[in-house]
């Protein structure tokens, strides 16, 4: 029993560190730039918003934070059940179950509100862009906007 107690503090610290690291998700709004996008030239076009449709942007499923943290918590919890081989088996089962639950929690907590913006570019072309909504500020049909782009990445701003 003493060994389990001595593992609780480091395991808890690791889980909390992983959970806080998962909070640092990159923003998908039109006003947020990743470090790799800074000081890179972008093409600027102007357009009028034709229509806007609310969408849901799925959460992260590729991160290791939720699954890793869940596996640690499940493994530690499982190790307290049984003794000998039983403790090893419940640790493994707890880690697997915790990893699955943690990954699902990470996906649901990183899901965000988005908007599909259909634009009539000044050259007449129709273009659609999906981006995250910030502070419930949806674009509206008729808005005059800037469309910034580089390669296949576009962002809509005022």
* Proportion of beta-strand residues: 25-35%
Major sheet strand order: 3-2-1-4-5
Distance between the termini: 61 Å
Q: Total domains, how many?
A: 2
How much helical structure, as a percent, in the residues?
Answer: 25-40%
Task: Kindly state the number of beta strands.
Answer: 5
Report the C-alpha radius of gyration, rounded: 23 Å
Low-confidence stretches: 1-6, 12-24
Global shape: elongated
Mean pLDDT, to the nearest integer, reads 75
Work out the helix count: 3
N-to-C order of helices and strands: HEHHEEEE
User: What is the structural class?
Assistant: alpha+beta
Largest sheet: 5 strands, antiparallel
Please characterize this protein's 3D structure.
The chain is of the alpha+beta class and 158 residues long. The chain has 2 domains: 1-27 and 60-110, no CATH class; 31-58 and 112-158, RNA polymerase II/Efflux pump adaptor protein, barrel-sandwich hybrid domain (OB fold (Dihydrolipoamide Acetyltransferase, E2P)). It contains 3 helices and 5 strands, in the order H-E-H-H-E-E-E-E. It has helices at 2-22, 65-79, 85-109, and strands at 43-57, 112-121, 126-132, 144-150, 153-157. The protein has a 5-stranded antiparallel beta sheet with strand order 3-2-1-4-5, with no helix packed on it. The N and C termini lie far apart (61 Å). The model is unreliable at 1-6 and 12-24 (pLDDT under 50).
